[in-house]
Amino acid sequence: MLPLLHLRQSCALFLSSWYRLSCVCIFLLLFQSQKCSADRIFDLENFQMLSNYDKRAVIVNKMGAAIRDSIHRRNERIQSRRPRKEICYDKVGCFSIPRRSVAPFGKKTPQSPEDIDTKFWLLTRENPTEPQFLKYSDDKISIKSSHFNVSRPTKFIAHGFKGSGKDRGAWNIVEALLEIEDVNVILVDWEKGAAGPSYALAATNTQIIGRQLALLILDMVSFGADPQDIHIVGFSLGAHVAGYAGRGVQNKGFKIGRITGLDPASPLFRQLLATSLVSLNSGDAHYVDVIHSDGARHWSEGLGLFEAIGHSDYFPNGGLDQPGCEHKKNAVLVSHLEGTMNSSVVCNHIRAWKLFYESLKMSKQEDGCKFFAFHCPGGLKSFKLGTCFPQRCVENSPDGSCGMMGYGSEESKARGALYLVTRDTAPYCGNLSISDLRVDGLAVISSAYAEANEGARYAVLWKEKGKKQFLVK
């Protein structure tokens, strides 16, 4: 208590009445803070207001800064001694709220498995339209009684925010997969958990779905399935579901073959990229490929991650905005969080799903168009300038100079960030060309080139003066 007595005496001798009042208040606060219980956190905001009561009290403010630092350190010690609040559910385990106020999902814990009511629907060539319900941790009873075949590759499809396993887009991919391959296809239907009502709640629910999916995969592995033959395709929040599932399987000593992230969701995940335990990353499977179609370089600009997080990251049209979509960046974050999205707002975001689906359809055709992509060391800027445009791309290029976006991505040797251009409407795939001819900054086609490609359809991108133009015919 000796330092406190010195402080009181100093205030009484040297300071005016205004200063004296401030010092008395500080003394009382300090004395009260010593009496606080070990579980009480000092209110820094109120102390800030008090210490700024008189702007002339320079000495008090300086002392206040030191005291605030001391209080902050004390609060940290108290927080470190507090047990983390957590909630536990049968089979899937426990989920904790971080100590810090900056929690990944706004200090929310996932809903219960009963509330989320996840459904795993199995479809095969034996039952292409009549899904069979699979359960996790049921001693493999549902697997044994279904058409699941351990000798086939297994594909999981996971939807995103506000999505459903009944969505037409999901079923389009199921039908395309069963047409080109004899596979087990499983729809991960977490409609109730994805509905929110808030985006933050749906985001934290991805942890539950990921663990449930991991348990089902482990049941399949114990039944005889090869984890290398397992491929999860996740759109938006579904991409992070895939990441959690991959890590859950690894915790038991296995690693799945592939994860495809279709424009992985950015809000509440982008700031946590350094935390590999939260967002999808390249360590979650032997091969992780990602399509970025609505990338966000700022938290309010887009629905998808712009950062490269996989072994192969594809950036169609630069990965930020897609041709044929309106510029809706200002409404993106609010609409995403409030669940008021419409087709124009999600146009860029959902393009990744459409591109992957088209790559599936094209893979059925012997001469089907390929989404060839190329490296661009200078990133987006060099891509726009056209300085890294290759002369030609060939399928499965031996030097890995060209990649192939979509379903056949794993066959390519290309890794890292890869760029390509697409058409503005389906079919999105086309043959790439480049032009240096311009009229008021817009590329034009020479008469000789037009005659050689009579009837071809072109999409002109990056309509900026002084820059090369990419053309897709």
TrEMBL record:
GO terms for molecular function: lipase activity. Residues 1-38 form the signal peptide. The keyword Secreted applies. Keywords: Secreted, Signal. It holds the Pfam family Lipase. One of its GO terms (biological process) is lipid catabolic process. This is Pancreatic triacylglycerol lipase-like. It comes from Diaphorina citri (Asian citrus psyllid). The gene is LOC103509100.
